[in-house]
Specification:
The chain has 4 helices and no strands. The longest helix is centred in the C-terminal third of the chain and has 39 residues, at about 70-105. Helices cover about 70% and strands about 0% of the residues. It has a domain at about 70-105. By secondary structure, the protein is mainly α. The termini are far apart. The chain is rod-shaped and about 140 Å long.
C-alpha cells in the first residue's frame, strides 16, 4: 500500500511541475510580446496552415451513381430505347393497315358482278 501511495505522490508531483512549466512558458511569451514596440500588424499564422494538401485529399469523392454525366447517359439510353420501341409500333401499325387494305381489295364479294 505504501508503494502505491508513493507512486501516486510521484505522479501528482510530475503533473504539478508540468502545469507550472506551462504557466511559466505562457507568462514568458506574453512578456516578450508586450516588449514588442509595434505588434498591431502581425497576424499569427495558424498551426498547420503551411502543410501541403496532397492531390488525393483535394479531390471530392462522389459515388459514380450521382454523377451528372452518368445520369445524362442513362437518360439518353432510355430515350433511344423509347424511340426504337415507338418506331416498331408505328411500323407494325402501318403493316396491319396495309394488310387490311389488301384483304378488302382482294375479297371476292366486292368485285363480283351479277350476271343473269
Amino acid at each position: 500500500m505504501l508503494i502505491i501511495s508513493l507512486i501516486f505522490l510521484n505522479l501528482y508531483r510530475i503533473i504539478l511541475t508540468d502545469i507550472y512549466d506551462v504557466i511559466l512558458v505562457t507568462q514568458k511569451s506574453s512578456q516578450s510580446e508586450a516588449k514588442t514596440s509595434f505588434g498591431a500588424g502581425v497576424v499569427p499564422i495558424p498551426i498547420g496552415s503551411n502543410v501541403a494538401i496532397s492531390a488525393k485529399e483535394k479531390q471530392i469523392k462522389r459515388p459514380k451513381k450521382d454523377s451528372v454525366l452518368v445520369k445524362h447517359k442513362k437518360w439518353l439510353s432510355d430515350l433511344q430505347k423509347t424511340k426504337e420501341r415507338l418506331e416498331e409500333q408505328y411500323i407494325d401499325d402501318l403493316r396491319k393497315k396495309e394488310e387490311e387494305k389488301l384483304k378488302v381489295s382482294l375479297s371476292p364479294s366486292c368485285c363480283m358482278t351479277v350476271i343473269h
